[in-house]
Amino acid sequence: MTQSWFARIVKYLNFAIAIVLLAAAGIGYWYIWRPLPQRSGSLDAAVAAPVSVTFDALGVPHIRASSLDDALYVQGYVTAQDRLWQMDALRRLDAGELAEILGPAGLDSDREARRLRLRRIAEDAYLTLPPEDRAALAAYARGVNGYVSTHLRSLPVEFTLLGYQPRPWSVVDSILICLHMFRSLTTTWRDEVIKRNMMAEGDPEKVKFLFQLHSGADVQPGSNAWAVAGSHTASGKPLLSNDMHLEYSVPGIWYMTHLEAPGLDVSGVALPGTPGVIVGHNQRIAWGITNLHFDVQDLYIEKFDDRSGRYLYQGHVEQARLEREMIRVKGQAAAELPVWVTRHGPLFVVEGSDRMTLRWSVAQPGVVQYPFLELDRAENWQQFTAALARFPGPGSNFVYADVDGNIGYHAAGKLPKRRGYTGDLPVDGSSGDFDWDGFIPFDQLPSVFNPPSGIIASSNQNPFPPDYPYPVNGNFAPPYRARQVRDLLSAHDGWRAPDLLTIQNDVYSGFNRFLAAQIVAAYDKRNAHNPGLDPAVALLRGWNGQMQKDLAAPFLITLAYQHLRTSVAESAAPGKGTAYEFSMAPLVLERLLRERPAGWFLDYDELLLRTLVDALEEGMRIQGRDIGRWQYGAYLRISINHPVIHRVPLVGKYFDIGPVPMSGSSTTIKQTTRTLAPSMRMNADLGDWDRSLLNVQIGQSGQPFSRHYQDEWLDYYNGRSYPMQFRGVEAKSTLQFRPVGR
Q1: 0.85 cut: is pTM over it?
Q2: Which end of the chain has fewer CB within 10 Å, C or N?
Q3: How crowded is residue 33: how many other Cβ atoms within 10 Å of its Cβ?
């Protein structure tokens, strides 16, 4: 009896376990295996002829097609396999449609996107796109929709967790992705408001000093990329490097791709949601891009009636257009947002009695074009710059090299011609005196071709000379990174692609070492040996300027810089010091400490010692009293969280990155902060393309259960990279696209 009862219990228990295992297997199959990208076999598709896709060990698709249209269709399809939810989230972010899937948490973001009128700008741009651009975007969109229409029952897990399905992809959506980069890289209107408020509360001359644009020793041209002529390389052919610094995200912003079709053979990184390659190389040329930081947004103070939408312009009353935005909100009624639009742009900032409209280069009629397929097919400098002339922005620095041994640089983008002002402060909109006179002609933008030095080295610094014929404004970077790049490249010859990877990972900060030396000199000058300060001074005295995560000195000097920056800004505009975070601030502080002008501080050495005391006290609050145990990486720790799965209890954290300690700073070649870092690294060898290197930050796939979701992170983190397969591709799998009906 007892044995029979026990046997039945065991039987039922085994049966229950089997059911649980079968259910788990079913759930795993449904939510994990089914949505994964297909990387082998064959499938029917809307292509005119067979297309093959070879995937390498990193999951990079090498697409070979007999027509450009088919190549872009398949690019859209395979990108959607890996990045569909990211693509959908980005178009929602910039269309102002996040609240529809996130609820009220997405409303603030949606309101800003609607006030920027991003979807309306994209829709207007569609109507004026050159036919060839529209055709390329349309082919890509058909590929995305080819994937979506056949996978509505096996979508990536984010769609299941949020409970919605994506709408079909369109050309307008691809334009929105381009506008996302505009929004990320050209939003400067807040700087105008901050500077205006500091001018109102403080000493205008001092505030102007805080917002200077030139270092007096800018190394031209400017961006975080470089090209080295064959005279400096082991192969006798140029090398070109690029690592674009952008905000952290899971997945990363770039998707590695290789496209081959008649007249096209290009490899590099693509922007998910758009066709072609953004940065990379073809058989003849290589190029890199980073942000120019030229100001393309202006705020106009309008004489505006909130009730009627009427405003004054050149002595006449004009009527603003009212656009009513309805924002869908998950679980709630739709939110209405009225947006007044004037000749200058939408009413965007309301401060007290002031009403400010926002003018933005990308919102001007006919600006948006898509020249990247033309860039991808360029074979020489002339064809390359002809394509760049169509580039709308965001304003960028393009660094170039070709197999014939040439290197070059050209700034590009639609940059406004201002008259009578620089754009650094809001201006009167009613007079008409501050309207733009179109855009600076492309052939008058900064450029260089085959400089005598054989080196083009830059890191976002100002490339416009002081005597430039047009007013210049922008949030340019100080020259420290560019100087370090040039110093390292000039140190010897015989460079190879892996050597340049070492430069990309350099974390020496010339500015922070200068500041440390200033503090030590002030301490020595006072001859004030303070037992409480002696260890800190000794730490800075022996430091070599390396912003390494396991060192204490970088932590101390970072805190000292922050306190010094606030003190300087407070001297210029009392009560506004914490608002001052201008990119050129390190250069401003260096000039102030070198020149020590009257009217700022009675005793600069006392200022430096007070800064040290404040930094030391703050550091002890954060990491304890034993400064020998401090670590910079414990302060500069970053977490890259999946925007959806992170919120899943118990398991969500396993799909995040970090928290991890980081090396680098805003003034090191490896520019690293709590919000941004290198988003990719490319080192192109024009002597042998297959000796080139390329990696992205985290992984090729956005699918959380893909083996390529995080497979690049550890190598990225430790400064390693991978061969950029081009002519010789080591196939791990092959997927065939067959024309429907064949």
Answers
A1: yes
A2: N
A3: 11
